[in-house]
Amino acid sequence: KRILQCINSPFCVRMEYFGKDNSYLYFFMPFISGGEMFCHLQKMGRFKEDLAKFYAAQVILGLEYLHNVKLVYRDLKPENLLIDHLGYVKITDFGFTKPIQSRTYTFCGTPQYLAPEVISGHGYGFSVDWWSLGVLIYEMVSGYAPFDAIEQMTMFRLIMQNRYVMPKSFSAPLQDIVRKLLELDLTLRYGNLKNGAADIRNHVWFQTIDWQSLFNRRVPPPYIPPVSDFNDVKQFSTEAKYSLLQIANVNELEEEFKDF
């Protein structure tokens, strides 16, 4: 709750309200009608570089904000990126987000997107989010993740050895930014150097991005989800099952959640 309360960025889903009753805790979040990036990527197969760049640039601004308030995100993937009815991106699902000052050691995240330092167990910092950005950019433009295997341990070995195939269809600037993000050496990985995210923003692949206009959401999106307005639900599954909440007459955990 405290993490959600402190987040205030155009590129992150924020909590509007919270509450509780005798049985449940409630978090009220805004409805982002464009749906998950994952679903759009599945439908299209892969994104053109300009669209992937537009999305990646917003993710960079979102991650840069989180890092500035000392939060490491730790679960960047297409399923955790929502596209609003205007075509802009918002990072969502902060279940693995954690405040850190220097290093943390928890093994968590989604296997395909884990940075080598998470797998090694020797501790990590904000650098893990920039590695995941490299995986995300690769996947958006190719349609598949750079590290994948049937056996999870095999996939982890591929990540630890940084073994992946760079698609020949990637432009030279795109190949370069992917390599600079999927860098084993933390003293060389973009985003983790003394200039921080500025090194990524100033990379040649992003030279067409007007960062100030993008921050103000004044850059025309290359793709707008096919929704009629911000209340349209057709980008979400209609197969979800709902049931009435059974609320207890007595709060048996009143002491544990008295400060919620």
Automatic annotation (TrEMBL):
Protein's UniProt keywords contain Magnesium: no
GO cellular component: cAMP-dependent protein kinase complex; cytosol; nucleus
AGC-kinase C-terminal domain ranges (all copies): 207-260
Listed GO MF terms: ATP binding; cAMP-dependent protein kinase activity
Swiss-Prot/TrEMBL GO biological process terms: imaginal disc-derived wing morphogenesis
Name of this chain's protein: Protein kinase domain-containing protein
Gene3D superfamilies in UniProt: Phosphorylase Kinase, domain 1 (3.30.200.20), Transferase(Phosphotransferase) domain 1 (1.10.510.10)
Domain of life: Eukaryota
InterPro entries for this protein: AGC-kinase_C, Kinase-like_dom_sf, Prot_kinase_dom, Ser/Thr_kinase_AS
Listed PROSITE patterns: AGC_KINASE_CTER, PROTEIN_KINASE_DOM, PROTEIN_KINASE_ST
Parts of the chain that traverse the membrane: none
UniProt keyword list: ATP-binding, Kinase, Nucleotide-binding, Serine/threonine-protein kinase, Transferase
Residues annotated as domain Protein kinase: 1-206
Keyword match Transferase: yes
Organism: Cuerna arida
